[in-house]
């Protein structure tokens, strides 16, 4: 991978807008930065003159902390902005809010927003690099990138590998970004979950639907288990949590019955005893804590590559 290679876009709005070359470049730099954060001295001066604002209009713990740590590891100046404490509550528009922040000479915006397309809308109205940290039920690109990196650490080249995404596909921005990312890396993708939580258009994305969890796990090299997103639901999509767990929850008994046990991922936060049991989450088959560590490295790579466009950053 040439050291001078650059992304084909000045924003990270979603995986859909990235080329396979962009994804490989980000994963290449992720490996470099993972080595950095495992050193005794974990900080590098790569973004010393860059100011980044984190705008979170939705509650977040893991993603916000991961981005903030990535920014500080790169020596960037960081501004944290929570909508609950801002003039947005007083009726100020998103563009006005961001332009006021940009007037403070901010170079990059990391934004999470409840509205699908919010990051793309912002990219057309402000002069700063935009990183989408999750927009409604649309995309969550850095989660897909860290998932792909975590899978590749375990399995090598993902071309031809089989990945099943299990759970609430309809409300999950993680699912959509994962589908785009994995397909661009050559993997086969399937989904599994209650029929009420599988969107009708899913076949148009080139994925298959495997209705029965046991069949999906037998088929897959990797199972990415999604949280049931009750906060995005406007009605009951299945009879009960107990029934959901019985049909779509991964237990060690179900894994032991397989001819080969897939690698288990979960984007978090985990509902233990719902999508997976504690025994599975803490087993050798799960790489959930690797995903957390890799999240910092992926976000360092994305921020570095975007900030280095048009700048002489070492």
Structure in words:
This protein has 314 residues and is α/β, with parallel strands linked by helices. The protein has 2 domains: 20-139 and 293-307, 3-Layer(aba) Sandwich (Rossmann fold); 141-292, 3-Layer(aba) Sandwich (Rossmann fold). Helices cover 37% and strands 14% of the residues. A 5-stranded parallel beta sheet has the order 7-6-5-8-9, sandwiched between helices.
What labels would you give this structure?
314 residues, alpha/beta, Rossmann fold, five-stranded parallel sheet, four-stranded parallel sheet
Structure in a nutshell:
The chain has 11 helices and 9 strands.
CATH class division of the largest domain: Alpha Beta
Please work out how many helical segments DSSP would assign.
Answer: 11
Number of domains: 2
The CATH superfamily of the largest domain is Aspartate/ornithine carbamoyltransferase
General form: globular
Strand order of the largest sheet: 7-6-5-8-9
Q: Remind me, CATH topology of the largest domain?
A: Rossmann fold
**What is the element string, with H for helices and E for strands?**
HEHEHEHEHEHEEHEHHEHH
Biggest β-sheet strands, sense, barrel? 5 strands, parallel
**Helix proportion:** 25-40%
| Poorly predicted segments | 230-235
Radius of gyration: 19 Å
Helices and strands: which structural class? alpha/beta
Q: Based on the coordinates given, report the CATH architecture of the largest domain.
A: 3-Layer(aba) Sandwich
Mean pLDDT: 91
Number of strands: 9
